[in-house]
Amino acid sequence: MKMRTLALVAGLGALTISATACSDDSSDTGTTDGSEETTGEGGGDLTIGFLYVGPKDDFGYNQAAYEGSLAVQESFPDAEILQAENVPETADAEVVMEGMIEDGADIIFATSYGHLEFAANVAADHPDVTFVHQGGLEGEEQLDNLGTFFGTVYEPVYTAGIAAGASTESKKLGYVYAFPIPQTLANINAFTLGAQSVDPDIEVIAVSTGSWCDPGLQAQAAQSLLDQDVDVLTQHQDCTKTIIEAAEAAGAMTVGYHFDASELAPEGWLTGSEWSWGPLYSDIVQTVVDDEFVDSPYNGDFRVGLQTGENPFVQSSYGPSVTEETQALIDEARQSFIDGSSPFAGPVSNQGGDEVWAEGEQPTYEEVETMDFFVQGVIGETS
Amino acid sequence: MSTHTAPDAVVDETSAGEPDVAPTTHHAPVPPPADGSPHDDRWRAAARATVRWTASIGAAVIIFAAFLTTQGADPVEALTAMWNAAFGDARSTGDTLLRATPLLLAALAVAVPARAGMFNIGGEGQLVMGAVGAMAMSTALDGAVSGPLVFALLALGGAAGGALWALIPAILKVALRTNEAIVSLLLNYVATIVLTWLVFEPWKDPLSTGQAYSTELPDAERLPILWANRVHIGIVVAVLAALAVWVAFRSTRWGFRLQVLGGNPEAARRAGLRVGSLAIGAMVLGGALAGLAGMLEVSGVEGRLRPGIMVGFGYIGFLASWLARHHPLKAVLASLVLAAIAVGGNGLKISAGVSGAAVNVLMALVLLAVLGWARPNKRVGAP
Amino acid sequence: MIEAVCVGAVAGGTSILFPTLGELITERSGVINLGTEGSMLCGALAAYIIGIETGSPWLGVVAGLVAGAGLAAVHAFLVLHRGANQIATGLVVTFLGLGLTALFGQDYVGQGVVALEPVAIPGLASLPFVGPVLFDHDPLTYLSLLAVPALWWVLVGTRAGLQLRAAGERPEVLRTFGTSPRAVRYAAVIGGGGLSGLGGAQLATAFTRNWSEGMTVGRGFVAVGLVIFAAWDPRKALVGAYLFSGAIALQLQLQAQGSDISRYLLAALPYLVVIISLASLSRRRLHAAPEALNHVFEHAS
After folding, report:
1. What value of ipTM does the predicted structure carry?
2. Which of A335, A342, A281 has the alpha carbon at shortest distance from A312?
3. pTM of the predicted protein model
4. Residues 235-264 of A with CB under 8 A from C
């Protein structure tokens, strides 16, 4: 039954391809692929589709994912990689995924939060194609061909917060963000807690632009933070360049996100958090190729952090002003995470002073991913 | 199309929201430019129009291909990919029809006010508010109603949302003579912000962990799917709306009055037409049509509200109306053409590695070709 | 706080003031151009690319001017030679600019910029309040500030200004003096597009130091609204541009100070400010409108 649908899909793909002389030169046979799944005529041996919500060269989230796809290409040189940028988080995403399947896709990486629902819809219609979604939670509805994965973003954000906390003189840090979604709130909180681990009096001012990439608003937001005597700027935005440039021009320090932007800010760069998706992407592809996806940890809500393995979210290189002592503090914190602690290990209180996690408590990955409050010391509103 | 004597029997639903204009005189003294010509001429005109369209689109495609070449894409391959994405098989064709649905209604939302001499560039915002209106209706009903009635109610909610949003520029225009083109355009940005607020605050789905979205419409409020897995009944609704507007334009008193108003407002006033309410009515009806499109998107495609829903539909609908020169039936074809280009953009993304936004170039070129082919000697600008 | 908002209004306002002035010239000649948004994008990208490729920000600025003017020339040709509808053509031209910049800009997203650096004016920049607000910006901001009185003077005190106004008010009179209104309108539309291009150039290479697809986010459309708000007077255009940009600065400043006013309301504020002022001033503004422009708005089909 499964094979029949497969043949149909492969046949459809072949039809489209031959009918349109669409270039498909991957007639090679030497892939590592052992399963019959991907031997549809004319469909190539292994085809992997990647969807990005923004441009693949945005110096940000999408570029990180794109570079992951390049690493996959390196690990699987015979595979055909399909790329789709600027895929909106609407039903349009389904159209793009269907198009990829028509082009022979065996595995689809949907890399933006808002793509999950659509990936799930398409996955239900195409049991022979494997879908992995970056960042979402599948919840109870488990499909055999769908999984989500993510790193624990907030770990390196916390350690970057330590660097910021050790460097600030004004004891005020600035955070530019888009929307108060749980991942962002967790990042802002982790950053704050990291900085407060150096000096509990440090405050973080959070300003929202209401957009993932509006450079004009970013420039104004950065300025409004600098006007509050903030001397370290960081952000959760998709395009990161404007804010880094603004900080550097004002002589303030910068903590990066998504990308090592130390070149943009040779003076003020402290450190940052960035993705290194390559190994995880490649491992997921290998799992599918080996026909072991079902029941693998990837066929569910896979989360990995220092507690459980190798976090795909890593800390960027240090800037010139980060001292040995600070680096030692950071190493210590990272070791504590490897040993089982969390950036949100209690006691943690919210803005109103109510204790959320008591001494000795810490949230699960799921609890972090549904975070809806700011911790004490953040100036800003979640609503 | 010269039946100016309006049979009162032909009062269709599209004019239901129209303010009462009955007590005015039967016939305005200034007849609109009659283009009722003998049949031969009409055929010749039709043939010429066909040639013109084909040539325009052909020229636009060739220039577009040249642009693609500069970006290192193989133009034949890229255009083939676009064609396949738009019409390659049943599913692709379905995607195109699906996209054409809101575009057609958004085009009518421009055509109706245009007949009365007004510019509605606010289709985008009216679509959004239509979606909001439908969602509000769904929330109010709370699942109490089902069957066909629920769709009528949701449509009412959507139309009301769009109509209210269009009422703002309409009233400002009539009462204060504020420029309706600019106000409706700027209101698009406000509508987007209202939507974001609703989705992040009062209507947020507690299960949305990533980018926020609203709760989902119950299954009973999802439009029936007709074809190709996704094409919902909305396409029929949109075409019926186009037919109704066409009939209303050519053979109702109201359609005639609009034309008089659009042709010469001063003459219309002297003829005793209630110019203000006519103008407001046209704009509001346009808004209601756009709002209906918003409802169809929510109930037929998306199932819920999310930020960035139907991005660009209102603007592309504006282009479609101009492509059709505000003729309701030609708007059907124009919407299909622009929908195909928009959907084709997905093929461009996947296969040619060219930014999907590049299809805007093709749309613009088609429009420029058609607009540029107009009879010179429209009084404006041509001294 | 007030000073910070004023600084933000000027710093962020330049990229709105330029297209507003450009559209003002265009409309004074009797043509409306909704392609300002597209001209801004073309100007932004051209300045960015040429700056990077040549290493000279000023060549970039010139390229931005030319690109904005080039796109406006498309509008001018269709409207003035082919009699195409102005509103529709303008929006189409914006689509064209959006698409072209997406196509040609994709290799430059996130690329290092050759920035137009701010230059503090010696002496004046250290004045309290006025110094930071007016005298510590990039050169294009100074240029925009100088452009306002210059344009006003051109409009009221020169032959070129007279011809421009005549093209918008009484083209037939202009014709009797042997000047072609069409030629004047061409110059106005293309020149206006050039100014919009400058606005884009300032946005990309000075204010944000970044290029990203669609980065103007409606600034060009706002400019069209501000022209009416300004009653076609460059001095009021300055007020309008700074009012809009000041509203943006205000909302971010309030957030940074921990204000609990709804962020959504604050985000809508700049647009609401423009709409409300348009509405409240519109009756008075109507008399100021170039005569030929009124024709445009009476003919939607």
Report:
1. 0.91
2. A281
3. 0.86
4. 239, 241-242, 245-246, 249, 263-264
